[in-house]
Write a structure and sequence with these properties.
Layout (H helix, E strand, L loop, with lengths): L55 H4 L9 E2 L6 H10 L5 H4 L1 H6 L20 E2 L2 E2 L2 H4 L7 E12 L10 E14 L2 E13 L5 E13 L3 H10 L42 E3 L4 H11 L2 E2 L5 H7 L9 H16 L4 E9 L9 E13 L2 E12 L4 E11 L15
Antiparallel strand pairs: 1-5, 2-3, 3-9, 4-7, 4-10, 5-6, 6-7, 8-11, 10-13, 11-12, 12-13
Helix pairs in contact: 2-7
Protein name: FAS1-like dehydratase domain-containing protein
Organism: marine metagenome
């Protein structure tokens, strides 16, 4: 059975939408500002679907697991604060120990979409910290792109928890892009705490294509006449970006929600390059396309450095957590990246309630969500589920994995 994330990329019929890097020639539409280096294009006929990259060796990877990996340090109050600060999400459950201890959680929490930090990652061609996200032992020289993730949150991640993660490859399939074949790898990541209790599971889709030899990359870089000009990232010399203040709202109950209700928007920006660097420092992922302009333009064919897909996940997650409130539970979340955002953009996370139903006696609220920027582009879409308490009800803190 395909995982939740894999079902969004049907083997025969669907074509992946615009991905986080936005430069694959298999996309539904490509921004005119994006340049395609020649090494990203495979000449017609050079590799047909009959020359499948899904060899018996590749297929044999399905079902394999990595060894459990415990993070170098436990979740800390400093890490939770840095994550909240980097995402401009001053939720008291992350930054205010007294408020968190007085809540139903009885302690400080780590933001649920960022419970793993890459500590002291090695520095390579693409930067540092992102290799583990796409490190699949394929028998060809490849790089991976973020195709989407489907999270299930099973219990709170507390400050002080030691997080261990393990990956299992659940599916590998191939699709033909306009410029060549793509290999989709679906991995299930399970995170547990020091008691062996599952914190979350996430089905992650990475999309792989052949990486060019180093000499080809150098030749293309050497052939460039220079960098293209970009809009200078805000703020201006006489400006300071104001910090976001927490606005406590009224806790919604299940009975208060109906289909068609719009979620309270989350608006971020204008984003700056400092936002991107601060996020890299908070989560340990220093991919160069997010901060190195020459690399982004010359080596990757991008018009500018791009906003991290993982940072945009946080903005959409904040949208859902605001709906849940401190008495609710953010249960499930799927995001697919379809375009790029840049420094200077204002990003708006929006959503609408699509279903209200009970599961096991608890009130579930399903939503469709999206990210748009001030240029009119929709750069991410997804769906999520929160559980809201009924009037007079208190929700559990532990939940089962869904199929």
């Amino acid at each position: 059975m395909q995982s939740g994330a894999a079902r969004h990329f049907d083997r025969q019929h669907d074509t992946p939408g615009q991905l986080e890097w936005g430069m694959l020639d298999c996309t539904r539409r490509t921004p005119t500002s994006v340049r395609h280096p020649s090494y990203l294009t495979i000449p017609p006929g050079a590799l047909n679907m009959s020359d499948s990259l899904i060899t018996p060796e590749v297929r044999g990877l399905i079902g394999t697991e990595t060894s459990p990996e415990r993070n170098r340090f436990p979740l800390s109050d400093e890490m939770a604060y840095d994550l909240a600060d980097a995402t401009e999400d001053p939720n008291p459950l992350y930054i205010d120990k007294s408020a968190a201890e007085a809540s139903r959680f009885k302690g400080l929490l780590c933001p649920p979409l960022a419970t793993w930090k890459d500590i002291a990652p090695s520095i390579g061609y693409f930067g540092a910290g992102q290799d583990s996200h796409f490190d699949v032992p394929l028998p060809f020289n490849s790089y991976g792109l973020n195709g989407g993730s489907d999270w299930q949150f099973l219990r709170p991640a507390y400050v002080g928890d030691w997080v261990t993660r393990q990956f299992r490859i659940v599916d590998i399939f191939e699709k033909q892009g306009r410029s060549g074949p793509l290999v989709f790898v679906v991995r299930r990541e399970t995170q547990t705490n020091q008691h062996g209790e599952a914190i979350s599971v996430a089905d992650r889709v990475s999309i792989h294509r052949s990486r060019p030899p180093g000499e080809e990359v150098k030749a293309i870089a050497d052939a460039r006449e220079g960098l293209n000009s970009v809009v200078i990232s805000p703020p201006a010399p006489d400006q300071t970006v104001e910090r976001t203040l927490h606005a406590a709202g009224t806790q919604r109950k299940f009975e208060d929600v109906s289909v068609g209700m719009a979620l309270e928007q989350v608006i971020k920006g204008p984003l700056t390059t400092t936002h991107l660097v601060r996020w890299a420092a908070a989560n340990g992922n220093y991919a160069r396309i997010h901060w190195d302009l020459p690399f982004a333009q010359v080596h990757q064919g991008l018009s500018n450095v791009v906003v991290n897909g993982s940072l945009k996940n946080q903005y959409l997650g904040q949208l859902m957590i605001k709906l849940a409130g401190p008495e609710g539970w953010f249960k499930r979340f799927y995001v697919e990246h379809r375009g790029m955002d840049y420094p200077g953009d204002v990003i708006t996370a929006s959503g609408v309630v699509t279903a209200v139903h009970e599961v096991g006696g608890y009130g579930h609220v399903d939503c469709e969500v999206n990210l748009t920027n001030n240029r009119g582009d929709q750069t991410a879409t997804g769906s999520g589920t929160v559980v809201l308490p009924k009037k007079g009800e208190s929700l559990p803190l532990v939940w089962d994995v869904e199929d």
